[in-house]
Amino acid sequence: MVRTSVSAQPAAAQRNQPRGGIRWMLSAGLLLPVTFVMSMDRAAMTAAAPVIQQNLHFSVTQMSVILTAFWWAYALFQVPGGIITRRFGPRKALAVAGLWWSVFTFLTPYGVVFLGFVVIRVLLGIGQAADWPASVYTLHRWFPRREQSRGNSILLCGLYLGNVVGTPLVVWIIDAFGWRQVFHVFAVLGAILALTWWWFARDEPREHPRISRAEIDYIESGRDSAQQQQKLSWRAFAGSLRFWAIGAQYAFLLLIQGFFATWLPTYLVQARGLSLSQMGFLGSLPWIAMLIGVFGIGALNDRVLRRWRPRVWLAAFGYLAAAGFLVLGALSADTTLMILFLCLSLGFVGTVQVQVWAACQDLGGKHSATVSGWTNLWGNLISAAGPLFTGILVGIGGDWVLAMLVLAVAGVLGAICWFFVHPERPLNAKENA
Questions:
Q1: C-alpha angle with apex 205: 202 to 208, nearest 5 degrees?
Q2: DSSP assignment, residue 8?
Q3: pLDDT (tens digit, 9 = 90+) per residue, 162-211?
């Protein structure tokens, strides 16, 4: 069957044609669960760490190395993961990666000795490194630009749900069945999702056996055809200031986000005097706010950007708001106001996250997996080193205020970086000429 050219269709006809739902099934029905289970694999080790340390008699230093080994491997293999995704397609890349990390999740309890755990965690990080570039590239191929923010918000939801329900779920499994079964459960779920992804997903909408012609035309109507054909070398990437700016701003973003992911429970208990039960409830509220921010800005983005394209301004404002509310939270003496300000801070971090991955798709085009891998590389290097940096600041200042003020400065620097990103213009080979 010969398809008519999308460009020949009037714009009004493209907007009014039936749109179908295969792309939403792919994102909400598969990418969200895959990313959620992947985040559960990470939560399993964090929650089980005290039990593993006690049972296997690891020192604090050894346990720290085991926990961070994953993040260093995950960060350093982001760019190779993007290159593999671009070379073999997101369908193969994500299916193989899912099976890979499921195998090493299953094997985690059998590390037995310190070195065994470190090796398994490194191999797990290598496997999970391909997930994000493959997922972002899939959304780029399957969603027109007018819907990419909503697609990204669904993907981010899967990642951050782990911080809301992950730890309580893992703790329940540990109490009911033992810590080893946590890794077995998530390994089996990951393998099932990887195989389901291989069966259902396709690299291109036109390749899917169940998609309608109307949905294909609708998706392709939102693409920049000139951008899809260009070829870019690493020299072209490295010579672009915008390529470095998108990576730098994400490092600043995860420096702020890392405080919530790593130090917030300790801060609430030690600096604010909350009990463990109070911390467990109040500590989850900022992550709920982040989910609200991700979904809210995702829907708003796709509608506002059709006319004004203010991605840079939304990201810069989100950065500054996150920094400002973090400072207000640090300085507030009232616990209720402190939690409210921290919720607003992490909620605005979520609004920036949506802009980041939409910008990677806009900048990279068919190279969005490479740009996403590069961006995630810088962010996760900070995720590995950031907690140590924050801990040093707390030690220097004698309290948490200095550390949170420095994190707020990182927010200002991240906002400045966005004015060098210019996602409205795709990267091209002539840019560094």
A1: 55
A2: G
A3: 767 776 787 788 888 888 998 999 999 999 999 999 999 999 999 999 89
Work out the pLDDT band at 225, boundaries 50, 70, 90. low
Tokens coding 114? 């310190």
Cβ atoms of 43 and 165 within 8 Å: the answer is no
Q: Are 191 and 107 in contact (CB under 8 A)?
A: no
List phi, psi (to 5°) of 9. -80, 140
115-119: which pairs have CB atoms within 8 A and are 24 or more residues apart? 117/52, 117/66, 118/65, 118/66, 118/69
Nearest residue to 223 via CA among 237, 205, 241: 205
Mean per-residue pLDDT, 85-104: 93
Across the chain, what does the average pLDDT equal?
A: 81
- b/e burial code for range 237-266 (CB count within 10 A of at least 16 → b): beebebbbbbbbbbbbbbbbbbbbbbbbbe
Name the H helices within 9-77.
11-16, 22-26, 32-56, 60-76
Q: Using CA atoms of 255, 257, 262, 265 in order, give the dihedral in degrees to the nearest 10.
A: 130
154 contacts 31 by C-beta, under 8 angstroms = yes
Q: If you search the block for the tokens 């981010």, which residue do you land on?
A: 156
Other CB atoms closer than 10 Å to residue 28's CB: what's the count?
A: 16
pTM for this entry: 0.74
Question: Residue type at 290?
Answer: M
What's the farthest any 2 CA atoms get from each other in the chain?
71
Query: Does residue 228 surpass a pLDDT of 60?
Result: no
> How many Å apart are CA 137 and CA 125, to the nearest integer?
20
How much is the average pLDDT of 126-149?
Answer: 86
Burial of residue 412 (number of CB atoms within 10 Å: 0-12, 13-18, 19+): middle
